[in-house]
Structures are given as structure tokens and as C-alpha cells.
Amino acid sequence: MAPTLALVGATGAVGTVMIDIVNARESVPWGDIRLIASPRSAGKKIVVRGEERTVQALGPEAFDGVDVAMFDVPDEVSAQWAPIAAERGAVAVDNSGAFRMDPDVPLVVPEVNAGAIADRPRGIIANPNCTTLSMMAALGALHREFGLRELVVASYQAASGAGQAGVDRLYAELAAVGGKNVGVRAGDVREALAAAGLTDDSPFPAPLALNVVPWAGSLKQDGWASEELKVRNESRKILGIPDLRVSATCVRVPVVTTHALAVHATFEREVTVDGAHKVFAAQPSIVLQDDPAAGVFPTPADVVGNDPTYVGRVRQAVDFPNTLDFFVCGDNLRKGAALNTYEIAEVVAREFA
């Protein structure tokens, strides 16, 4: 009998993308698909696989008979309800940060470490942070071939990484600074935002329109941002390299959706641009766009809405042995969140075949 899938957080931003992904699949392994959300969203009607389904309120009984439950809810909600789903017999696949570094919860990118899915003592599987995910398909493929040793990353993160509030704020700021000559003098952008009443309640610590902000997340020890520590800790866990040397600088940029990263990766074995091209070209989840002479390289505006990871600007770092530099783009709401969560769920579904 085909397994039952539950989508918790079905009416949220990433939950909506998950439904789009399920609807776009040629076939799915599920017998029934159950939509779950907060009580205020209960009763809403959403079409999934051609059938109108009613959103159920989140509660213990909502997981009865569920085999796989995908969670796209805030950390505190996942922390409470994913264990309840597991107690009721479901495998919980969680997109929040609640369980990522729990040693009893595998942190999974299916094309990198799908084998970790089987070892889930708590009945929970974690989905990585969208920034880490945006580069992981590329790094995982290179690591298998050349052995990753060191990683230096600068991320350029879209406003949607801060949720709908981030998107709304960026649009509001862009409208406020739309006049000519704004930004040619220090203070212009802040003055334009103040004139539009945009002085409070921003999810960003500085104006994002016509600007870049070298900060993402919350302040941690020694001046590190939480997003930067996630890149380090999650890369180590996913790749199975606990002593991997990692340094990350996370930057918020005025892009609505799709994260980009500049990656400087050092390997144990000799690596060349041609060798890296062959590795990337062999991966079905990677699109190689690397012809700078013709102006061909990935950008967020061209990648948004697509499932694969896009890679370009592959260069051999002449002054650093066994080192490559490259640029990666990935839609942070698709592969960076919804798609990877769903791909994990599909792997689990095979256990019911």
C-alpha cells in the first residue's frame, strides 16, 4: 500500500512551493496527501494532484495513519511537533533548524549523503539551511572525487531568506528609493526610507535597497553571525568531515529569491578546471554555465524558479595548491528548502515499496 504523506505548514511560503513541486511531478509515490497548518488556516481548500483537499489543524490526531510528515514551520513548532509525529509512527522530515545538529538526527542532501537517512534514532530527518544547501551538491560531487580539506565561502543571500517579512521590506524599500540620484551621497538611502516611514520593524540591520548588508542571522560568539556558523557546522556534518576547516562571510543582497555563493575550496588531491567541469557535468542536479568570454555564468535572476544548482566561474587558484574558486546559485525556496525536503521524503517512501 502506498504511504501517506503529510505536509505541515502547507499554507506557508515554502509549504506553497512544496505543493507546487508535488503537483509538477509526473508521478508521486503517495497514496494520500494530507495538508496540515495552524488552526487559523484550517478549513482552507487547496488543490493537490488534481484533488481539492481541506487543510487540517495541527494536532496529535492529524498524524494518525501518516507515514512521512514534511515540516515547514518555525523552529519552536518543529521542536514540539516533529517528535509527536514520530511517536505516532511517521518519519518526520524537518525543514527548520530545530534538529540539524542533533547527533541522533541525520542532516541530509540526497545526492550527497542519502545513506544517512536509514540511521534516524529519533524518527526525524533534518533539512539543511538554505545557504549550505545552495552549494552542497557541487561540493559533495567534488569531495567524492578530490577530497575536500578547506572551505572559504562568501554568500550573497536573497531577502526571502528572511521570510516573507524580508521580501515585503525589500519591495517597500525599492519603492521608496526609486527616485533618480538616490544613493549618490552618504545618507541618501536612509533619508528616502525615513521619508517613506520605513524606519522601524525591518528584518535587516541596515537598508537593503541599493545596498549590501554584511550580516545574516543573529550575533554569536566572537562576532560571528548564526548563518556563518550554520555553513561551517552543517557542511562538516553533511560531508562527514568533522575537522573540515571552514570560514564563511554571509552577506544579504537586494535580490528577492536565489542565494549565490563564491566558493574557495581546497582539496587533498590535485584538481583542475577540466576535472571539475567533468564532475559537474556528470551530476543531474547541477547545471554548468561557465563561458565567461561569452558572458555565460549563473546569476540569481536567471536561476530563480529552477530546481538545479547552477555553477560557473570555475577557476584554478594559482597561488593556492589543489584549490578551486567557483560561483554557485540556487533557488533558496526550492532546492534550498522545499525541494530538498521533498526529495528526502521520496527516498523514505521507497522503504514502503
Automatic annotation (TrEMBL):
Catalytic reactions on record: L-aspartate 4-semialdehyde + phosphate + NADP(+) = 4-phospho-L-aspartate + NADPH + H(+)
Keyword set, alphabetical order: Amino-acid biosynthesis, Diaminopimelate biosynthesis, Lysine biosynthesis, Methionine biosynthesis, NADP, Oxidoreductase, Threonine biosynthesis
Claim: Amino-acid biosynthesis is one of the keywords in the record: yes
Pfam family, one: Semialdhyde_dh
InterPro entries on file: Asp_semialdehyde_DH_beta (IPR005986), NAD(P)-bd_dom_sf (IPR036291), Semialdehyde_DH_NAD-bd (IPR000534), Semialdhyde_DH_dimer_dom (IPR012280)
SMART domains, sorted: Semialdhyde_dh
Entry keyword annotation includes Amino-acid biosynthesis: yes
Annotated protein name in UniProt: Aspartate-semialdehyde dehydrogenase
Organism the protein comes from: Gandjariella thermophila
